Amino acid sequence: MLVDFLAYFNRINLVYKTLDGIPFEAAVLIPKSLTPDPAKSYPVLVHFHGGALIVGTNPDPSFFARWIIELTTTTPAILISPAYRLLPESTGADILDDVSSFFTWLHTSFPSSLRSAFASSPSDSPAPDLSRIAAVGESAGGYLSIQAGLLFNSHAKIRAVGAAYPAQYPDAVAYNARKLGNAEAEKVVDGYLERVKRGEMPMRVSSPWPEGKELVEAMCVTGRHREMMGEDERLSIGGATRIAREGGWDVPPVWVIQGEDDDLVPKAGADFVVGEIREVLPGVPVKYTVEPGPHLLDLECRLDVPWVKEGVEFMQKHWL
């Protein structure tokens, strides 16, 4: 499904940081169903796009689930989808730094930046309620949503996380184990990494699907995602949960969605991630929804699908 965002939202692009002259934009999507009331403030839904941390844009219509559109427009909430650096020109640690920077900006500069965007019509500017933030994402975006809640919630202040097929963790053995025997795919990965080492591939913060499809498919076939992510302990679920426990901050409740037939991010990986959170952080509410279906199984699901409705109600109980 390719989503026509302008059919549901008015879009504003705001820059949350600049690095090496490259602006990192956050797409602010304000539902057309939201009529700003100066006496009200509106909850915020942060969305991280999928794409294996290698491709995607903010948000990418190829991956964006319909239930998220309906959740945002019926709440109503202000949806914000930040860009972030992409592998392998950057590392997984770089991406985590972008996520942290985004939440710092969200709590310090976003309200004034949003008002400035409506300077010519201030009555049309909705006031964000930064005490009511939830984070959602699919695949790599689900991974980043969980990571934000585990690593950065001392300043992110997320109240609930919704993460679809998020087990892209280097210590989740079931995900992306190194596979041998596909010489052509190995050649694609080796060639791209060599160009990165030679400095021929500039930093990317947006690659709308299907841009980069060949590299993503080669990574999946060869199982070399870990190699692209790097060695930072924060990237693993074991490291992230330990950091959260030792940090002592409030980790938000997590709803994990997983397809039984997902061959890109297998269910066994999600089982491991959910198990780690429950074991290391037993006080964190976790709802684990497993349904028949492949990767992107929730893409066309609406809010009235029973298991989606149940999961959304879990999130709303803690978010709103």
TrEMBL record:
InterPro entries: AB_hydrolase_3, AB_hydrolase_fold, Carboxylest/Gibb_receptor
Signal peptide feature range: none
Domain Alpha/beta hydrolase fold-3: 45-175
Keywords: Hydrolase
Keyword Thylakoid: no
Domain of life according to the entry: Eukaryota
Any GO MF annotation of the entry: hydrolase activity
The protein's name: Alpha/Beta hydrolase protein
Matches recorded under Gene3D superfamilies: alpha/beta hydrolase
